[in-house]
Amino acid sequence: MSSNEEQLFLQQLDKKLWTAADKLRSSLDASQYKHTVLGLIFLKYVSDSFDIRRQQLSGQFTDKNNDYYLGESNPEDINAELEQRDYYTEENVFWVPREARWKFLQDNNKVAAGTELTVRDADGERKIKISSVGGLIDNTLDAIERDNPKLKGVLNKRYAQLQIDQTKLGELIDLISTIPFAHESLESKDILGHVYEYFLGQFALAEGKKGGQFYTPKSIVSLIVEMLEPFKGRVYDPAMGSGGFFVQSERFIKDNQGKVGDVSIYGQEYNHTTWQLAAMNMAIRGLDFNFGKEPANTFSNDQHPDLRADFVMANPPFNMKQWNTGLSDDDPRWVYGTPPPNNANFAWLQHMLYHLAPNGSMGLLLANGSMSSNTSNEGKIRRALIENDLVECMVALPGQLFTNTQIPACIWFLSKNKKSSSPFAQPAPAKAGGGDPEHWSHRDRSNEILFIDARNLGYMKDRVLRDFTDEDIDTIAGTFKQWKTSADKSSYKDIPGFCKSASLEEIQKHDFVLTPGRYVGAAPEEDDGEPFAEKMTRLTKKLKVQFKESNKLEQEIKKNLTGLGYLLDE
Hints:
The chain has 18 helices and 13 strands. The chain has helices at 3-23, 30-61, 75-81, 86-89, 102-108, 133-147, 166-176, 188-207, 218-228, 244-255, 272-284, 345-354, 378-387, 430-433, 470-485, 504-509, 517-520, 532-563; strands at residues 116-121, 124-129, 233-237, 263-267, 289-290, 309-314, 356-367, 391-396, 409-415, 448-453, 459-460, 466-467, 499-503. The strands form three sheets. A nine-stranded mixed sheet has the order 5-4-3-6-7-9-8-10-13. The protein has a two-stranded antiparallel sheet with strand order 1-2.
């Protein structure tokens, strides 16, 4: 099946599922319903993956040429063997007890409250009393968590408490049952991972301002990942939301024929339910992750104090106030100055720098004020970052990119080492650098900063939100890569109105302000061939005629109003 056919299949599936799920929302608001739906999607994935492995084992047990062949065993012996946990865990498949399998959930979601169900498995026979459909789901999640310590605390077991018609929950289970896991060219985790991400985006739109707390627009995440190229090493997000940067990093690695296992994922999130969403997002994709012992405040309860990451990416809350409760002004993270208590922008930036490895790179979204503000020590911190040659690239973004804020934003890219270097121990695939493997070697960019003004890129995807196309992302990321990798900058050229490579001396002349518009200048006007003097004469005459027409129209309006008995003050 072609890539276009796969995309069409996924798009049709998205539309069908979201339309149906939204109709079942009933009295729940989007923030509650998000966890209801996504928890069930996760449950479906875990059960589907278990079933796929079970089918594989069943075939191997009866195949005489397979090492797992069980000889002339009867079906009961084979079924007993299929219930051995080790066969699943050895392939990193979650063990799913009988009472937690999707078929059990679907077969029993219409039973009356108070019904007692019997479950028989390798551990014997047990009785389960169902209080409601929500209780049935909670029991299912409990069973999975009990048998998979890695999921401890990850699953949101609150379905019995939902103020929702229980028949709606049953209908939702039936709807999610229609998500196919058998497909000609797409794997189960690819389909369910896609559906999970699509629903995250739709819920972010539905929640509006609150949605931005857990979801960063895919195109912005893609842009930052394409520019940083996290091919191998430790990847860290201190404000991870639902884990979008990690998902896109996985895609980048696969697209460039790398190994997902070469990347270690570290994250932190304060909101407990969002922390759970991120953990489920990783589990669906089979990604190993370390999100700390618990959800926690990044500034006051750092879950990874000793981490030094190769890549750090984040979309922290813009202009966050009262962030420094319990913190000392001499905190070791404030190397370049103490951030003001009424704005956490430079606290996030320095926290990320603190966790960056000696050759690491980072990218973070901040409000535009961070590029020029001189109040409350911010100007001094920015100057110190520039003079220590940490800032590598600044990207100004167009407005209306985010569901949760209209504040204009930019992306800061910083590097601990702008000397000539290769970011990877082994040559990386040619595709990632846009050419041969030499493109992965970085030239010496000392005392230079690239400015990109992307405010005119993108398109309005609806009346409210703007988005980047793939071509826009390629243009911005490609410009950065050309500037960074070409030994003599021969493949990079300044483009008036779009990009400019500025020296430290130029930035000093602008008082260490990092707004790209100051450096890239204005795009050249198209030359229409008409001499300037002639054009001004023609336009002046045209304006004079228009003034006369305007004055004539004004007198006619006054005359008509007077005739109707209305007098206008002169």
